[in-house]
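Person: Please work through this fold.
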Amino acid sequence: MNPLVERLLANLLELREDIDRVAAATGRSHSDIDLLPVSKYATALETQALAEAMVAAGLEVRLAESRVQALVQKASELAGTGPEILWDLIGTLQSNKAGKALRVVDRIHSFDRESILIQLNSLAQAQEAQPGTTARTVAGLLQVNISAEGAKHGFDPDDLPAVLEMVAGLPGIRLLGFMGMAARNTDHDSARTAFAALRQLRDRLAPELPHLSMGMSRDYRGAILEGSTILRIGSLLFRSPPRSRPGEDTAAEA
């Protein structure tokens, strides 16, 4: 096995073991939680190696990027070179790049404003109207600002009832759940409080939605304890060598 693939596989397996350990406290296992690797700081070669490691680990090959341009470029470079990759967008989607994103992206974690939802719905409807095409829906999650940081994107929790009502009238949007981020420099308890708030919002307003995308390299344990179903992990997977206790002492974005 390629040494890079071998290292990434070791990191994946170590992280899955830790996820299992933490999830057991809530009566869940890693099979209830999707590990979504974030490849935004990885080269195309590293990303391809990670995809191969995910196949070896028996995982769905789904990766995330935060910028549309980087995602499109990496998807183009890796097309046909290894395992087929499903791509998620986890960063803000600019309106002028929405059409380009839809040609590549499978899921969007950053439905963060009404205007982008309306635009994506229109694009999906326009595609459906093209001769020889099938109905298209854009799958994704509502980004909720649970950190109370002004710089963070996302809907205010108080606005969610109206947003959910609006989305119900957009046939081109397929809502999967909520996404949120704890404040960057917060402590473990404060992060858990933020994650719990997102779970409670979902349970109260839209219990039928299956996903909570919350938890990154620095705070994924607390997110698991509060019901996360998607962990967005980057730096822990690309570290070298593996650490015995992943998830601690890192402040990387993912």
Summary: The CA atoms of residues 121 and 171 lie 7 Å apart.
